[in-house]
Amino acid sequence: MLEKFAPENIKSYTKSQLNVLCDELRVTIYDTVMRCGGHLASNLGSVESTVALFYVFDFPNDKIIFDVGHQCYPYKLLSGRYSRFDTLRQAGGISGFPKRTESEYDAYDTGHAGTSVSAAIGLAKARDLKGERRNVIAYIGDGSFNNGLVYEALNSLKILNTKILIILNDNGMSISPTVGGMYDIINQIKESGASESIRLLESFGLTYLGVKNGNDLEEMLSAMQEAKDLLQNGSVLLHIATKKGKGYEFSEDHPTGTHGVPPVGSPKDKEYSEVLGETLCALAEKNKSITVVSAAMKEALGLSDFFRDYPERAFDVGICEENASVLCAAMGAGGLKPYYAIYSTFLQRAFDEIIHDVCAQDMPVTFCIDRAGISGADGETHQGVFDLSYLSLIPNLTIAVPKDTEELRAMLEFSATYSHPLAIRYPRAGRVVFGGENKPIQVGEWEYLHKSTSKNGKKVAVVATGERCLIIAMKILKNMQEQGFDFDVVNARFVKPLDRQFVQNTDATHVLTLEDNVANGGFGQAVSMAFMQANKGCAVKNYAYRDEFIPQGNVAALQGEYGVNCKEIEEYVKSILV
After folding, report:
1. Is 89 a catalytic residue?
2. Which ranges in 321-402 belong to alpha helices (H)?
3. How far apart, in whole angstroms, are the C-alpha atoms of residue 237 and residue 199?
4. Is 455 exposed, middle or buried (0-12, 13-18, 19+ CB in 10 A)?
5. Catalytic: which of 26, 89, 190, 244?
6. How far is CA 463 from CA 27, 93, 139, 495, 529, in A?
7. What is the pLDDT of residues 409-435, one digit of tens each?
8. Taking a C-beta distance cutoff of 8 angstroms, is the pair 432, 299 a contact?
9. 455, 549 contact by CB (below 8 A)
10. What φ, ψ does residue 293 adopt, rounded to 5°?
11. Which end of the chain is more exposed for a tag (fewer CB within 10 A), N or C?
12. 44-54 pLDDT, tens digit each
């Protein structure tokens, strides 16, 4: 049925056919995610509500914005993308998130939490001003409903005088279990129909409808029609309760572990997050001032054991990245030593707070920045390729990049007595330990991983930051040594401050920089400026990512395609040394 499904025909389906359609959606999503990886549990829970949406509303004339987009797979399958769904999250394939360039059914690109209500209001105002007739829907999970941007949007709803439908998909989860005062309000409504809590939501100018069983198709069909009718008079909040992972027992029982899953058979590399969790637990045992803060991602960031062993010093504030940053700054002002673990792409949301609250006050906050650099299959919204650029311009902030998991451990141990803002950024997987004795961590000091013995008049130093780029440098070195060439390889484990002694003292005539970050404002440009100011007369060439948003795909392939290409670098070095 799904293979031949056409969205314009769904209104002729019987209830029995719609139930079969739900079953086929679940099977297709499960099978595809097992092959391609992706977000499983959240999409399994949204099947019935999505089928009901298609049955009652008229897409693509009606517009829907999926908050984050973790629930959009059923929508993609029902909107004409079944034949390409087996390319999910692959290079050139179907995105794991809504994409306007992918289909006319996708009204707005998402990937970060909390934007859907603002976007729905904006689309609704565009509709009103153009005199169009269409419904606009924001589909948002209870985890995202904690995000402060939602309340900025709701604050504007009456002022902007428009009508939208908000579907609150309440499954008790973000990636981690949902926490916070707003979720307590939602939960009170779900459990006891608390009228005071309903009045709070309705004070924003919404008609509250709920709580409806989001996994009961018949109830969903009725609720969607009722919501559509109520939209004639004003904005509506439809509150539905769903089971994350619905239909697959293991996913239902382990919604956190099956939120995002790798393809079956993928190698399990040691993750930097494991080392983070282990080391912070060991440090916290000795240092009672150490605290840990997470924005709804404690499991994904390796912090489960810390939350278990030190619950009084572990804080999950939900999907509220700005709040988490200010919380850490204030903890520092109060004499604590806070660690804020977060993905690179989500730290972007707290840019102002990093500047104003943490760094301007010179607070002893350590940012543990996971998934830095190209993240791969999640695409543009999740590539962590901007942090070196936007963090480097902030005074008082030291930026460290470990060469491997063992150096991360050393940096964390160093951080425990460091009394200023510190950012440590690293990718997800740590496949390589470079070995040898790690040089003690000194702020702004780099280390040679290999020192050339060549007596050639021209000398090259490849200065790379982070494991991925150092792997590339060492791979090129090995290839070129077999051809009789040699060059220095330097581990630039501090991006800010730079190693001024290296700049002053290197005997290299040519310096190449490699980074897992965009070129604009990045490490390479800082090195180029340092050599220019030192008036060294050394040629500097930067390898970093072009000024483009990087799509989904294989990490290594994307690195090469977007500016950090092994073959190109090797040929350039060879052209110097020949």
Report:
1. no
2. 321-333, 344-347, 351-353, 387-392
3. 12
4. exposed
5. 244
6. 49, 35, 46, 11, 15
7. 999 999 999 999 999 999 999 866 787
8. no
9. no
10. -125, 135
11. C
12. 999 999 999 99
CATH architecture of 447-577: 3-Layer(aba) Sandwich (3.40)
Residues 6+ apart with CB under 8 A from 435: none
Alpha-carbon dihedral sign for residues 162, 165, 168, 169: negative
The active-site residue, picked from 48, 299, 321, 570, is: 321
Burial-class residue 246 by CB neighbours within 10 Å (0-12, 13-18, 19+): buried
Q: Where are the domains positioned within the chain?
A: 13-261, 275-425, 447-577
Per the DSSP assignment, residues forming a β-bridge with 510 are: 460, 539
Mean pLDDT confidence for 133-144: 96
pTM of the model: 0.93
**Same fold for the pair 13-261 and 275-425:** yes
Return left, alpha or beta for 510; rule: phi > 0 is left, psi -120 to 50 is alpha, else beta. beta
Instruction: State the Cα–Cα distance between residues 459 and 218, nearest whole angstrom.
Output: 73
Annotated catalytic residue 321 = yes
Rounded Cα distance, 329 and 333, in Å: 6
Strands (DSSP E) contained in 353-397 are 366-370
Would you identify the CATH topology of the domain 13-261?
Rossmann fold (3.40.50)
Active site residue 8: no
CB 527 within 8 A of CB 504: no
Strand partners, 177: 173
Tell how strand 206-213 and strand 165-170 pair up.
unpaired
pLDDT above 70 (res 464): yes
The structure tokens listed for 418 are 């460091």
Catalytic residue among 63, 163, 313, 349: 349
What is the CATH architecture assignment of 275-425?
3-Layer(aba) Sandwich (3.40)
Tokens of 350: 């707290």
